[in-house]
TrEMBL record, chain A:
Family: Belongs to the ATPase epsilon chain family.
Transmembrane spans: none
Residue span(s) of domain ATP synthase F1 complex delta/epsilon subunit N-terminal: 5-84
Short name of any one Pfam family annotated for the protein: ATP-synt_DE_N
Repressor found in the keyword field: no
Residue stretches of biased makeup (Basic and acidic residues): 97-118
Record keywords: ATP synthesis, Cell membrane, CF(1), Hydrogen ion transport, Ion transport, Membrane, Transport
Compartment(s) of residence: Cell membrane
PANTHER family: ATP SYNTHASE DELTA/EPSILON CHAIN, ATP SYNTHASE EPSILON CHAIN, CHLOROPLASTIC
NCBIfam families hit by this protein: ATP_synt_epsi (TIGR01216), PRK13442.1 (NF009977)
Gene3D superfamilies: F0F1 ATP synthase delta/epsilon subunit, N-terminal
Renumbered residue ranges of the record's region Disordered: 97-125
The protein's name in its UniProt record: ATP synthase epsilon chain
Phylogenetic lineage: Bacteria, Bacillati, Actinomycetota, Actinomycetes, Kitasatosporales
Amino acid sequence: MAAELHVALVAADREVWSGEATLVVARTTSGDIGVMPGHQPLLGVLESGPVTIRTSEGGTVVAAVHGGFISFADDKLSLLAEVAELSDEIDVQRAERARERAKSEDDTPAERRADVRLRAVTTGR
Amino acid sequence: MGAQLRVYKRRIRSVTATKKITKAMEMIAASRVVKAQRKVRSSTPYAEELTRAVTAVGTGSDAKHPLTTEAENPTRVAVLLLTSDRGLAGAFNANAIKAAEQLTERLEREGKEVDTYIVGRRGLAHYNFRERAVAESFAGFTDEPTYADAKKVAAPLIEAIEKETADGGVDELHIVYTEFVSMMTQSAIGSRMLPLRLEEVAEETSSTKDEVLPLYDFEPSAEDVLDALLPRYVESRVYNALLQSAASKHAATRRAMKSATDNAGELINTLSRLANAARQAEITQEISEIVGGAGALADANAGSDN
């Protein structure tokens, strides 16, 4: 049995990351889910939250994902997101500013998005 | 310089200036086509994965969702027409509008009421001028559409299809856009977006053709997944159509401007020939006047000698 799964993280307008991994943890509407090679075929709705990908080389890739889907079959995992950013692409200062602004404007979804970004950065380091 | 020659020279100058402008527009459009094509390509992975997922839910579960099952007697439909904000693109907008009108006519013959949604100032102007009802219109982003724009366009459509027909909702969703086939060929097509025809969807993704889809485990449930999936599917289809339409528009502009530049070159050639002929005629006339004058003088002198 293959001990790794092929992961493709795609946003609406580009492919964000793709490669081999041993474990992927994502947040679905009914809770966090971890997918390892050999998992049964799965199709789930993602919440906005960080997605953690443990690569075959032993590294960790963290991305902030806002809404989307996870689908897994035949050791191929696709993460579809309207917006997805890798943790090292995220501009911390900008995200912090966005959070402050969202807080002052009482914009809860925007605040959560900024929050998810910041959390992805802290876990990614 | 003769009056006629002056007129030709002036026309040549003005055509040369126009030619420079159309040449520049052609080059701008050419570079934008490439950019737009790249955007179409980079949006494909998402669209493909999404289509795969939709097919998987549609075939892998017996969930009855209003968006996948056809209404028994569809009475109202929505047609989304994609045009551009700016003209100078040959028959690009005219073709898209014509395709939309044909589709509308066909749907009306089938006894359906048609709500028209329009993207692009050109299409809107066409409908406003003819005082036809437009349900909603969008403009200002057709050159470089983003996913956020697609969401904005898709939102009222999704809302309309989720509503009951009696409350002003629609049963079907059609889209008319210009498909980017190649640099030289773009064709306006109309297709039905919802309710889904699963066979068609499966055909679009060539990779899934000979593949048996696995039995998925749905999280949290097939209905919920479908509920969340279909709006995204509509958005992604609208996004893809917007991108293709933008690429087609730039290709059409490039072609229109290229033929304008060619025509200007031809016109300059013709005018230069005419100007040369006029100049030559002027010279010939001057020579014959001089020769004639000299001859007359010589004759007069010869006469006085006697």
